[in-house]
Write a structure and sequence with these properties.
This protein is an alpha/beta fold. The protein is built from 27 helices and 16 strands. The protein binds one RNA strand through helix 13, helix 14, helix 18, helix 21 and helix 26.
Length: 691
RNA sequence: GGGCGCGUAGCUCAGGUGGAUAGAGCAUCUGCCUUCUAAGCAGAGGGUCGCAGGUUCGAGUCCUGCCGCGCCUACCA
């Protein structure tokens, strides 16, 4: 609603400027005033116009305000300071729209969106770094679905890489396990933990001798080739670990639709198809000498083309070596001299498939059934089921991958562009985010021995290879234990199973919020103290605000859901306006409020701020999508909860004597509660019945 | 060397396309549970926004140069 009004205001101003001054501004800058006393919107555009029109800003602002006329939904415009134009909305009308839950229809682009996230190597337990990825990705999916987009969630599984080979080596060489024994272990509830340790041990074992490292290459080769016992073991292990990852993420309400695996990219010859096209179009060039002799290489993303095919006429600058050559520095090897393709190459093929440009498709079979939502997650296969959903062929693609992959992502885009699919490249977005690292203190708490060098560092990187890191399930378990203690002491009368369920929701709320409150570029220095906190800017804080709102209704003998279903029925826009508008008492000082007993003379602005914040959710969601930054919504949820808590303290509702006012306060609580529940759901956070 | 990112309160972080008095949380200190649950509220202290220039009515925000930190820069995935 808030967004809607802003657009209307901007349009109106634009039209007026065109008519009155003949000026066309590409952007009408509208911002949110620092205080609600200044109105709901403010524009400094008179300052910009001052130069163009050679008039004082204040004068321009006055002319605009005087000449623009009435705007639907707005009370008036006014000039402030040296030339600000402040706009005041019709509070009753906006509040009424919020209460009616009016969502102005906005046209949305058509086409399916593919969000790829998680992509955890299936050779060990998921850790906190993977949590950030999955939570960021899942929240982005929820944001898109909130605005009505159709989304497919994919989780790319690299099941043929060295990481998997390492665990296979561990089982065969270090543990000397038989296939039957491995099968039995794979049945264990936390097989991924077993692999975590084994992977670290194997990595260490490689350091012992060059001989050991050779084993790794041999095993890797066998896996890639397929059709042998080693490949079967790799499949067995990676599938079991993958299943564990899905279980772990399901604990956080994170689901996937499709799991494309590298083994199928290989066996269904995706690369061959891509390679042909890449050669035809000259995207890849063969190096016949130099450092990369015998390789097929590509120009590194971001580097300049040295030769130009058409548009420019820089022939005079062409020197002999310049013809099609890319300097070695700027080369990215795609196909190695031994004719094997690197990971970027496979990624290019995969992305061609995503946009329906490869001319090939996976085969599919059901892999995992989500017990709660009853949905199925599909996996790629070489001979799949006949009936399956249609994946791929999407209009847009967002990849959630940490910042270290930025260059590789750019290379993929560059390849698409050079293949002549510029529009696909433009619709491929890398959602890049910073690493989750351990503070030295945290690493010490976990019992890791730090090298002298590490001790001087500000933080320690998580490393699966070294076994450094906090496992996702461990963190979640710790959060549940901590929440459970609190729930036990607060609600001893409830069943243990119910208390457990409540604790789980709190734990998930805490964890998801923790990962979302940092903006993407920020490196998260993980610390148990912060992550395990349920106070202040946390998920449980917002959940608690909702529970409190619910309690008002319960104690008052109202049915919240029934009341919330038709909140608007309680009050007319005029009633709302009466409670939310400041009496036009000529610019005197704002009435001072007594914090203790403000029941009668409350500041309408303070209540209005709460309603206004509640109206901004859709606006914030749009912003999150446009900037691929879910943290804004997390921030918004916290601010709304914070304002609600203040409101809650300042206005005892059930003891309110004025019936009309009581109804208004209840309506306020219902509206904010509803809005918080909705916004929390977009963050993937549910609210428990009690806390 | 090149590319990307970061540097704001003791700590962890917000500060959309330059705008009104730079904000939260944690930690510290002081109050508030016979009240709709204190996972809360009210208040206090705490800032040369890394440094130096520049652009202009106006810079935490934009430009340049430094300083410090991280990541990427493999015929590993």
């Amino acid at each position: 609603m808030y967004r809607h009004l802003e657009n209307r205001l901007a349009q109106q101003i634009r039209g007026f400027l065109r008519e009155k001054y003949g000026v066309e501004l590409e952007r009408i800058v509208i911002e949110q005033p620092p205080k609600v006393e200044f109105g709901e919107y403010a524009s400094p555009l008179a300052f910009d116009l001052a130069k163009k029109l050679r008039k004082a800003p204040r004068k321009i602002a006055e002319e605009i305000v005087a000449g623009i006329g009435a705007i639907e939904g707005f009370q008036k415009l006014e000039v402030a300071g040296a030339g600000y134009i402040n706009a005041r909305v019709d509070r009753g009308a906006l509040a009424s729209a919020v209460a009616r839950d009016e969502q102005p229809t906005v046209e949305k682009p058509s086409g399916k969106i593919l969000v790829e996230h998680s992509s955890i190597n299936p050779n060990k337990a998921a850790h906190i770094g993977h949590l950030r990825n999955a939570i960021l990705g899942d929240t982005f999916v929820r944001l898109l679905r909130f605005v009505g987009r159709e989304v497919d969630v994919q989780n790319y599984i690299d099941n043929t890489g060295v990481q998997v080979a390492d665990v296979v080596v561990g089982f065969l060489r270090l543990e000397k396990k038989s296939r039957a024994e491995i099968e039995q272990l794979a049945e264990q509830s936390r097989f991924d933990y077993y692999c975590w340790d084994l992977y670290a041990r194997t990595s260490q074992w490689y350091e012992e001798s060059a001989e050991n490292k050779k084993v790794r290459l041999q095993v890797l080769h066998e896996i890639e080739q397929g059709g042998n016992e080693t490949a079967v073991l790799a499949e067995l292990i990676s599938t079991a670990v993958l299943r564990r990852h899905l279980e772990t993420m399901d604990r956080l309400d994170i689901e996937y639709d499709f799991l494309p695996r590298e083994s199928e990219i290989l066996h269904l010859h995706f690369w061959d198809a891509a390679f042909t096209k890449l050669k035809e179009t000259g995207v890849l060039t063969f190096e016949s000498e130099g450092k990369n002799k015998g390789c097929w290489v590509m120009r590194r993303a971001g580097t300049q083309k040295t030769s130009t095919t058409e548009d420019t006429e820089s022939t005079e600058e062409n020197t002999e070596e310049d013809t099609e050559a890319v300097s070695e520095e700027d080369q990215k090897v795609i196909v190695r001299s031994n004719a094997t393709v690197g990971y970027v190459g496979k990624d290019i093929a995969y992305h061609m498939w995503k946009f329906g440009l490869l001319g090939k498709d996976f085969e599919y079979r059901k892999f995992y059934h989500y017990p709660v939502t009853q949905k199925d997650c599909w996996v790629s296969a070489t001979n799949g089921q006949k009936e399956h959903p249609h994946f791929g062929d999407v209009a847009e693609n967002y990849n959630v991958i940490d910042v270290r992959q930025s260059e590789a992502q750019e290379t993929v885009k560059e390849a698409l562009r050079d293949l002549g699919h510029g529009e696909a490249a433009d619709r491929l977005t890398h959602i890049s985010y910073g690493m989750v690292v351990l503070t030295p203190r945290c690493a010490a708490e976990l019992g890791y021995k730090l090298s002298e060098e590490d001790k001087t560092r500000p933080f320690i990187g998580v490393s699966g290879r070294k076994g450094f890191g906090v496992k996702a399930d461990d963190l979640l378990d710790a959060l549940i234990v901590s929440a459970k203690q609190e729930v036990d002491s607060r609600h001893p009368e409830r069943e243990d199973s119910e208390r457990r369920e409540i604790a789980e929701k709190i734990a998930v709320g805490a964890l998801r919020y923790f990962m979302l409150k940092y903006t993407k570029p920020s490196v998260i220095a993980f610390d148990f103290k912060d992550a395990l906190s349920f106070e202040g800017e946390t998920g449980p804080y917002a959940q608690y605000a909702v529970v409190r709102a619910t309690n008002i209704f319960r104690k008052g003998g109202f049915d919240v859901e029934a009341f919330s279903k038709d909140v608007a029925a309680n009050l007319s826009p005029e009633d709302l306006s009466r409670f939310l508008s400041v009496k036009q008492a000529d610019d005197g000082p704002a009435p001072t409020t007594d914090d203790r007993r403000p029941t009668t003379g409350a500041d309408p602005n303070e209540l209005w701020e709460l309603w206004l914040a509640a109206s901004k959710t859709a606006y914030v969601v749009d912003q999150c999508i446009a900037t691929t930054e879910p943290a804004y919504l997390a921030k918004h949820v916290f601010q709304l909860a914070q304002m609600f808590n203040t409101f809650y303290h300042r206005h005892p509702i059930l003891t309110e004597l004025d019936e009309q006012r009581k109804k208004f306060l209840l309506t306020t609580a219902a509206v904010v509660r509803q809005e918080l529940i909705r916004a929390l759901a977009v963050l993937g956070i549910e609210v428990p019945v009690v806390m």
